[in-house]
Automatic annotation (TrEMBL):
The chain crosses the membrane at residues 6-26, 68-89, 95-112, 119-139, 159-177. InterPro entries: Ig_E-set, OxRdtase_Mopterin-bd_dom, OxRdtase_Mopterin-bd_sf. Gene3D superfamilies: 2.60.40.650, Oxidoreductase, molybdopterin-binding domain. This is Oxidoreductase. PANTHER family: SULFITE OXIDASE, MITOCHONDRIAL, SULFITE REDUCTASE. It comes from Luteipulveratus halotolerans. The keyword ATP-binding does not apply. The keyword Nucleotide-binding does not apply. Residues 233-386 form the Oxidoreductase molybdopterin-binding domain. GO terms for biological process: sulfur compound metabolic process. It comes from the Bacteria. It holds the Pfam family Oxidored_molyb. One of its GO terms (molecular function) is heme binding.
Length: 510
């Protein structure tokens, strides 16, 4: 039984290793259009079909480690299937072979269903399948006692040893395949050579934007600490030399620009706080950065949108889409085709070589990374990736605020003057934050001091010197936007269009 289970795992490992190796070759040779790795294709197809409740569950349980969780889950399911095939093979070899064929066919179908897939992309899955069938027969013939005349075959201990060897070898081969296919190295080289264009009017961080309390999220978040959210299982590696951005759809004239053309345009800087709609009250799926880019409106103007168009469906190199109101890309706000974040080229994680940044809208309807197409269209005719998955068609950012210091459940000490510093951030992108108040226990709402406003598109820090009494207390925060509207205390989950409620923490004062 153990030998059979090991056999099943050996078959699975060989299928994956051969598939990854061939996928690497297909990718390196430039024959691939989609995702030739069956593992990544199945994972991607699964992600795209994840129902809203499961996505919410994954994000709330695993946070930004949801991809790792998916891979672990896939590995467990796959290992179980392999064990079933291995055990089944002992008595019913044909059934086990058939089951292998079915699984490989499912994987091949997943590959074929990925955006941009070409015939060459399914070759790795098929090659893996053929190798797997051969190994299954071989293992079976070596380990199954076939009658009194059986010549010995392989004993249990040897079989398990061979199995362990094959598993280790397969892991190496699979890793090699990924290394062969990966464009990460050449993309990284290209990235290092990029000089970020100078801008006529650089933005600056006003003195006083930071309230100077330890533990508050930095006013400008470094790229390496910036939150990352996307549906991509591996980070798309897009070479600037082959990158193009096309404007299509309801336009007088289709336009296509390449990387050099983009870089030759007059660039602007804008400070914009990016915000994920999946952010829970008190969550940290947001960040503020200085973005450098060419205004989207300038590119759209070259294409001349036709009357009746009200949406731009932007598409990324990996097929993801966002539906943005045309107006948000053509009015006077700083909507950019961004090439830099905090004056460094974007990292591949954050959309290298180019992405969209639109002040005032959640990322899922605006912030397309690895952007390759802007299709001018209508909300009546098209929808972005998340809309059919239960999220609103439009996603303006809701006014909200967060307590960064202290943390929930902290034990805090009072300073010599009896005070405890409370501090955090508040945002109402493109409208602006004009007030923040805190409430201790059942007390009255009291004004906090705001850091200097850099732009209405960015968050503001706030600080409050709390005259604390010893014991356990709850602290709540709320923000007001420029229209005088206070953030609602009514609680709502992130779906379908952003969470609401006051961030509230408990602390014990010593
Ligand atoms: N290509 C692509 N772009 C994308 C996404 C994605 O899944 N794929 N997710 C969007 C979402 S939901 C958010 S919140 C922002 C996050 O940008 P960041 O990862 O740079 O912080 O990217 C947006 N752009
Ligand atoms: Mo998001």
């Amino acid at each position: 039984m153990l030998v059979d289970a090991v056999g099943g795992l050996v078959v699975g490992a060989v299928v994956l290793a051969v598939a990854e190796l061939v996928a690497g070759v297909v990718q390196r040779a430039g024959w691939s259009g989609g995702e030739p790795s069956p593992v990544l294709a199945v994972g991607g197809a699964f992600v795209d079909r994840t129902p809203l409740w499961l996505k919410d569950f994954a994000v709330s349980t695993f946070g930004t480690r949801d991809k790792l969780a998916l891979f672990v889950g896939m590995a467990v399911v796959l290992a179980l299937l392999c064990v079933v095939i291995g055990v089944l093979a002992r008595r019913r070899l044909r059934a086990a072979l058939l089951m292998t064929v079915v699984f490989v066919a499912v994987a091949a179908a997943a590959v074929a269903s990925r955006p941009g897939a070409r015939a060459a992309d399914v070759v790795p899955a098929l090659a893996g399948g053929v190798a797997g069938l051969a190994v299954l027969r071989w293992w079976h013939s070596r380990t199954s006692v076939t009658g009194p005349s059986y010549d010995g075959g392989t004993d249990r201990r040897t079989a398990i040893g061979i199995g362990a060897g094959v598993l280790a070898g397969a892991a190496l081969v699979a890793w090699g395949g990924r290394a062969i296919g990966s464009a990460a190295r050449s993309v990284n080289e290209a990235r290092k050579k990029i000089a970020i264009p100078r801008v006529a009017k650089p933005v600056s961080v006003p003195a006083g934007a930071s309230v100077g309390v330890d533990g508050v999220t930095p006013f400008v978040v470094p790229q390496r600490d910036f939150y990352r959210i996307d549906t991509a299982l591996t980070i798309p590696q897009v070479d600037p030399s082959s990158w193009r951005l096309r404007v299509t759809g309801m336009v007088e004239r289709e336009v296509e620009i390449d990387w050099d053309t983009l870089l030759s345009k007059p660039m602007q800087e804008a400070m914009v706080t990016l915000m994920c709609v999946s952010n829970e009250v008190g969550g940290d799926l947001n960040g503020n950065a200085i973005w450098t880019g060419w205004p989207v409106r300038e590119l759209l103007a070259q294409a001349r949108p036709k009357p009746g168009a009200d949406m731009v469906l932007s598409r990324s190199a990996d097929g993801w889409t966002a539906g943005t109101p045309l107006e948000a890309l053509t009015d006077d706000r700083s909507s950019l085709i961004a090439v830099a974040m905090n004056r460094e080229p974007l990292t591949p994680k954050h959309g290298f070589p180019a992405r969209l940044v639109v002040p005032g809208l959640y990322g899922y309807v605006s912030a397309t990374k690895w952007v390759t197409e802007l299709k001018v269209t209508r909300f009546a005719d098209d929808e972005g990736y998340w809309t059919p998955r239960g999220w609103s068609e439009k996603g303006p950012v809701k006014t909200s605020s967060r307590i960064d210091v202290p943390r929930d459940d902290d034990k805090v000490r009072r300073a010599d003057n009896g005070k405890v510093a409370l501090a955090g951030v508040a945002w109402a992108q493109h409208r602006g934050v004009t007030g923040v108040q805190v409430r201790i226990d059942d007390g009255a709402w009291t004004d906090a001091r705001l850091g200097t406003e850099a732009t209405t598109d960015a968050w503001r820090q706030w600080v409050y010197a709390w005259d604390a009494s010893p014991g356990k207390h709850t602290i709540a925060v709320r923000a007001r936007d420029a229209a005088g509207e206070w953030q609602t205390g009514e609680t709502a989950p992130p779906d379908p269009n952003g969470s609401t409620g006051w961030h509230t923490i408990s602390v014990t004062v010593a």
